[in-house]
Amino acid sequence: MKALRAQDVEYTLQHSRGARVDEDVAATFKSGDRVLTRNIHPIGHTRLPRYARARHGTIASDYGVFIFPDTHARGEGVKAQHLYSVRFSARELWGPEAREADGVYLDLWDDYLDPAPGDPAPGDPTPGDPT
Amino acid sequence: MNGAHDLGGMHGLGPIDAEVDEPVFHAEWERRCFAITLAAGFLGQWNIDMSRYARERMHPGDYLKTSYYEHWLHGLQTLLVEKGLLTEEEIAARMAELAEEEKP
Predict the structure, then answer these.
(1) pLDDT tens, residue by residue, B36-73
(2) Domains identified in chain B, total number
(3) Which of A12, B45, B49, B99 is spaced 20 to 30 Å from B2 by Cα?
(4) Which of B6, B31, B42 would best serve as a mutation to test chain A binding (most A beta carbons within 10 A)?
(5) Confidence band, pLDDT 50/70/90 cuts, at residue A3
(6) Is there a contact between A56 and A85 (Cβ–Cβ < 8 Å)?
(7) A41-63 residue pLDDT tens
(8) Which chain B residues are closer than 8 Å to A41 by Cβ?
């Protein structure tokens, strides 16, 4: 087992690998797509919070390809896939008493998302969601 | 996992107390905890997602009553024991030793 020596700390921290993966993986979604998060309750690590499961959102941007934390935390590989910023209207998450203009952006992986059923054609305004 | 770390939407915890010019560490032990966690991570026995999962597995009752770096310390101990680098007995013995040293 290799220990980190004091003189190597600065170099190692500056060159340590991030969670981005240099791999060509196809994106399932693009900006503007409507998605429905999966209703999952894994006993392991996940980055999909409870309040955002089985909720409709919109892809705000695509960050590129990243390590999938759920499998990585189990030692089952990086399962490289696209990571998106997904916008949820506050009303979708917290109900009709939330402010209409408010929204929550979550960084979510492809494996948390399905296409929203009955997805309107791209560019169509969606009722209740100003994006 | 549906643990205490997943706080979104939970009521009753009071306002978020945002400190002006908040220091990175509030006590010397937090600085050490952070450094030891990073150094132990470079042993290559686990990855960052395993570290997060180790913190999330803290008992919900304990998790909600302890501070950020206490979660880190708990997670590190969990991983060190699970990977066979330390035993619970060794940690307990060292804690007893330190407590003895601190007696006036």
Answers:
(1) 999 999 999 999 999 999 999 999 999 999 999 999 99
(2) 1
(3) B45
(4) B42
(5) confident
(6) no
(7) 999 999 999 999 999 999 999 99
(8) 2
Size of interface A-B (CB pairs under 8 A): 52
B80 token code pair: 């060190």
Residue B90 maps to which CATH number? 1.10.472.20
Containing B102, the helix (H) or strand (E) segment is helix B88-102
Q: In angstroms, rounded to a whole number, what is the distance separating the alpha carbons of residues B95 and B74?
A: 14
Give the model's pLDDT for residue A119.
Answer: 63
Which of A18, A77, A84 shows the shortest CA–CA distance to A47?
A: A84
**Cross-chain residue pair A3–B1, CB shorter than 8 Å:** no
CATH of the domain at A58: 2.30.30.50
State the pTM of this model: 0.89
In this prediction, residue B6 has a pLDDT band, given cuts at 50, 70 and 90, of very high
* Candidates B2, B34, B49, partner chain A, best to mutate (most A CBs within 10 A): B49
Rounded Cα distance, A85 and A122, in Å: 17
Predicted confidence (pLDDT) per residue in A73-114, tens digit: 999 999 999 999 999 999 999 999 999 999 999 999 999 999
- A48 to chain B, any CB pair closer than 8 A? The answer is no
Long-range contact list for A11-15, CB < 8 A, 24+ apart? A12/B42, A13/B38
**Residue A12 belongs to a domain:** no
Q: Is residue B39 part of a domain?
A: yes
